[in-house]
Amino acid sequence: MKQRNASAGTGQHKSAAGRGQGLLEPALLAVLASRPSHGYELQRAVEELSGGLVCMDSGGMYRILRRLEEDGFVASNWAEGDHGPQRRRYELTSTGRALLKEWVERLRRRDEVIHSVIELVEHSLGSVAGASARTRSRETDNSKEI
User: Fold this and answer.
1) Structural domains of the chain sorted by starting position, each given as residue range(s) with its CATH number in brackets
2) Rounded to an integer, what distance in angstroms lies between the CA atom of residue 128 and that of residue 84?
3) H helices present in the chain, as ranges
4) pLDDT bracket for residue 11 (50, 70, 90)
5) Parallel, antiparallel or unpaired: strands 74-79 and 87-92
């Protein structure tokens, strides 16, 4: 039997910091912040908005949506489809919007760390690249003397 999150519906929720490292959850929340959507629309919108960098399989997406709904961040209902059967339509709740704001801050901090690491790597490559250039320059000078 699946246990529901004890915080669901109580106004208490896990912060973004306790919700994993991936980008799928904040990407789904961001799309839902702009408009309610059904699963296929969500999947397509996330892939389009990320330039194809954030891709997800349908099963994984629905697991995330189910967890977000159990935790009170997303609500869903059945809606008539434009073509074909009813589809589940998801929308962001007010606590989901608060979670998305937490994600923004967490992603900004992650971005700062990533930029720091990039600068460190570039700096270390600069000293290696500089040493290689000096070596090539000396080799060229030596060949001119011969």
Assistant:
1) 19-145 (1.10.10.10)
2) 61
3) 24-34, 39-49, 58-70, 94-145
4) very low
5) antiparallel
Q: Which residue has the tokens 């194809």?
A: 52
Using one digit for the tens of pLDDT, what is the confidence trace for 80-92? 767 778 889 999 9
Is 5 a residue whose pLDDT tops 50?
A: no
Six-digit token string for 42: 């969500």
DSSP string, 54-88: S---HHHHHHHHHHHHHTTSEEEEEE--SSSS-EE
Residue 52 has a pLDDT of 86
Q: How far apart are CA 64 and CA 35, in angstroms?
A: 18
What is the distance between the alpha carbons of residues 121 and 8, in angstroms, rounded to a whole number? 43
What does the DSSP 8-state code read for residue 37? E
